[in-house]
Amino acid sequence: MRPHRLWITAFGSFPGEEQVDFDALAEAGLFLIHGPTGAGKTTVLDALCYALYGRVPGRRDSAKSLRCDHAPPGRGPSVALEVTIRGRRLKITRSPGWQRPKLRGTGTTRENEKALLTELAPSGEWVGLTNRVDEAGEFIGTLLGMNAEQFLQVAMLPQGDFAKFLRADGEDRRKVLERLFSVKVYATAESWLADRRTEAFREQQALRKEVDFAVKRLEEAAGSALSAALTDASSDAAVEVPVEVSVEDDPLGWAHAVEELAAREVTRLSGMGLGGEAAVRQARESLERGTALADRRRRHAEALTRSRALEETAEERADLETLLEEAAAADRVLPLIQGAEQRAEAAAKARSLAADAVARALPLVDATRDVVHDRTGTGETGDRLDVGALRDDDARDRAEAGADRRHAVLGRLVELERDRRSEITRLGELRTEESRLAEIVRDRDRAAREIIELAAAQAVADSRLKDIPELRREVEERLTAARLDAARIPAAESAVEGAVTRLRAAERRTRLAADLAAARADLAALLPGVRDAFAAHPLPGQAHDVLGTRREGTGLSAEPGEIREVLAARERECGRQLAGLEGLRVEEARLAELDGLIAALGDELAEAVRQEGEVRELWEALPAEAAEATARLNEVRAAGAGLPAARARAEAATALLAAVRRREALSAELEVARAAQVETTDLAQALRDRYQDIQRSRIEGMAAELAAKLVPGAPCAVCGSPDHPAPAAPADEVRTAEDERAAQGVYEAAQERRREAETTVTVLLSRLGEVRAVAGEETGERAGETLAEAERELEALTATASAEDALAAEVERIAAELDDARTRIEEITRRLAEGRARLAGWQAERDRLTARLDGARGDDLTVQARRDRLAAEAGRLSTALAAAVHAVEVTAAHREASDRTDLAVPDATGELAEAEGVLATLRASAEAEPALAAEAAGIAAESERLRERSRELAVGLAARRTDVERLGADAERLAGRVDEARGQDPTLTARLDRLADEAELLREAVEAVRDERVSAAELVTARDRALSAVVEAGFLGLDDARAAVRSPADREEKAARLHELATESAAVAAMLADPELVAAAAEPEPDLSSLREARDAADAAHARLLSERSQAEGRLARLAALRTELAACLERWRPADEQHRLADRLAALTGGNSADNRWRMRLSSYVLGERLSQVVASANERLDHMSGGRYLLEHNRDRSAGDRSRSGGGLGLHILDSWTGVGRDPATLSGGESFITSLALALGLADVVTAEAGGVDIGTLFVDEGFGTLDEDTLDGVLDILDGLRDNGRAVGIVSHVAELRTRVPAQLHIRKERRGSTVRQ
């Protein structure tokens, strides 16, 4: 691998386009890449590695983008490398993915990674190989024989990775060496032997498993009883059995002996009687009758016990009924009592609010005289309120207690509010005058501004009128010149048309000449492929010399017409052969069909053999299964007698659980309803408080607003006093009348919801009482457990009883399966015989077709390959023939064009350009004529408009001056009227606002007094309703009703207890009246245990006899079949065992696991170890010089202590230190020592790879940094070694910023770092 040129664009630290000429650098053999830290020295190697493999070394490969941040936005990153690999000159161009600007709009879009691989052909042209990223990387990796990581270790050692190959373990070192040296044949031999050993082992194990499985099945079929009886049978003269039979030594003899014993057992069991069935039936009937009698006696005894206990609870039930009735009556009147108490609280709060509202309105009463005086100018005092009396607390309390006094206060407040509303109405009429005054002032100011603007506009118009005459003269002169140029245009157009005709003729002749050259070149490029096909497969009677040596200057050995005739003849012959091969497709299809049929038939035969084994196993196992099913059927029939009693218990438990759940649901609803009642009551009270708070806040806000306008020493607008001892403070939030009305609406809605909640609670209490009468105090958990227990019992009995029909059907099914299995065995045997005969016929037919097709394919591998080759050749011929026809046509067209004109294209182009220039000038001048005429007319019109405009402006100025004088007089008149109306207030609006605030304060006081009267009336009504309800409910008074109230839990507990007693009493009475229970109590107690024991003993004896006989018959048949199968398995296993032993010995030897393998090395590792020895020998020649004769590398074939891999042994490396005479591990070397050692190893590796016949020539090495760790003497030695590489034609590039190297290495590549990015200087 030798690089020639490298192009870098917007990559890494290079923002522009940079070029590196490696050929010039490599002429000296040793060159230096230097520059400051961070300039981009390593980026050059990154670009080279990215061009080859599409990735960069180290962690930089994980970067999101490789594009230079200094590059212009539209410049994409790319690298291009021209390189020679194994004698092939290649050019690789790659572009990493980047975010490019969008072609439309703003933002960026993702540009994916791209690659282009081309090769320099012998003709000097670059031929494209691929433009796919993955294919390019795979091609380069295959050609180099290394992947990216191995290439970095051998040819390009990046920063920090010098000693990676040196310190790698055996397994990693092996991976590198396997890619560099061809050991495929040895690895294939290892793999083949290992696979063969595994395959032979699997075959032997599979066959041995078949033998062991057959023996195991024989042992399982025989059972322990027959195996134990085998020794006793040897003493019986009637049976010929060997005295000592071993299953390990003689499996077949042992199988024969077991089969003889099984036959004797069948004979013995067949003579026994089966008369136990009647005894079994009688025992079951006796047990069923005894079980039913015992259950009825138990239920009657339990009913008697419960009846005596219930007689003692009569008094308790009477007390519970009385308490529950009183609690229900108390619950009905309790909401009325609570409502009366809430009304009392509301009335007290309303009284407090009314008192506060009246107190805040009192300052306005003292100002009544001033208000009236301001309105009428008189001093009315006849209806003045006694302020001193209202301010006294005792007098206020007496006023709240008397209805007449409240009525008088209310009347006075209403009157004061009405006075202020009237004053507001009168003053509101004057607000229009105030607005009119402001409007007049604005009109006067606007008229003054218009006067200034009109005067300026008149001056501009007069100035423009002075410039109009000169402009009009210049436009008329240009219009005359444009009209003359328009008359010359027709002659110029005729000249242009003639020039265009002559140019087109010249261009067509030139284009046809280029087309002719291209057509000849295309035909010449297609002929080599056709000529190769002619040479490889010549056809008789065809002349091919026209496709031979090319003529000088034309690229073709004959004229296109001659070539066309030869190609057409060859194409016809290929078509004839293809037509003949098409006739063989039927035979090919039949052969493929036969292959599929034979494979499918083989699978069918194998499947039939498998099915035969399965059916035989089923047939042998069915007798035992039949006996087991019969026993289960008898048990199920005995379990169906207890179903009626279980159903009755389940129904009673279901009814009880439903009642308990209804009681719990109603209790939960009641709790929710009571919580809702409490919540709605609290909410209604809170909303009433909020409504009253808003009223108070509005009153307080009015007083604070008036207090904010007070000025020390100035009289109060309400009371007239100059002293202000305690002005009202402003509230945090100001309330309006809308807020008050909204709060009142919300409060009334909450009251309605409270009444609905009270009704819901009453209804739920009634329903809960009804349910408790049924469910009593039984809990849901106990009722559920009772129901679950009853259902489980019923379910178990039902499931057991429901299985009776299935078990009966099962017994019948097993009997049918026995017959079906016998029939299937016979059918499968017949199918096997037919299939084997059909297989032999198909195989003979396949052999005949194969022979016929082999004769038709000729020298090709297959008939399809011959057909594909001829089709491909026909395609190439068709393409070449089309090119020849095109060349003939273009030749004729070119001759015709040459006859028409001899004018050159440049001359015709110049003539046309001159004519078009003259025409364009004339047209531009003529096109200006309309615009110039319009401009002249516009100037005349503008002159007239300006004169008219000047006159209009003069008239407007006079009118505006008159308006200013009139508006000034109106403004003085209106200002006098507004000042008279506002009185002592700063403005008329301020006076209106003050009066509105006072009226609102008085209105709120009126509403507060009215609310207090309504609350008092509601309180009386609520108390009357509560007392009436208590008396109607039968209570002596409110205290008596409150004492009868019970909590929900207490009521639920007592109702549940009462219901429980009533339910239990009814159930006990029903049970004692049952005639079956009464009759059962009169009979004696049955002995159930004795009846069950008798039933079980009879069932066991009967089932045991049936099972033993069926098992013995099945065992005998199975033993006979298994003995035959065992003999066949042994015949197949013995040859496979011998083959496995041989394969195991060879695979162990090549895999390094055999005792005969001295080094315990695999064959491929041994070969790689020899290659490593050559690498070490080559590296030591340089390491000895670079280390001053101190260090040498040593190849260690032994497996290292920590190496657990199976393939890395034999590839170890050690360092021999001549100063100490002791071997060292490479990890103990210093940084500089590791550098020179790994460098020597890399150079030696390159030498051996180059010398290896199948290896790759690493013609250029790169060393990235590391020289800074060397002292001066060691650096001299290293440079001498690197300089000596020039003898073998190899070049070494050093990447370093060590200053001393610049004086020692003349060939240099300088990387310069700047703020806008780095550049390359060579």
From TrEMBL:
Top-level taxon of origin: Bacteria
Subunit field text: Heterodimer of SbcC and SbcD.
Keywords on record: Coiled coil
Coiled coil segments of this chain: 413-450, 747-845, 964-1012
Pfam families: AAA_23, SbcC_Walker_B
Family designation: Belongs to the SMC family. SbcC subfamily.
Signal sequence bounds: none
Record domain Rad50/SbcC-type AAA: where: 8-182
Name of the protein described by the UniProt record: Nuclease SbcCD subunit C
Gene3D superfamilies on file: P-loop containing nucleotide triphosphate hydrolases
InterPro entries in the record: P-loop_NTPase, Rad50/SbcC_AAA
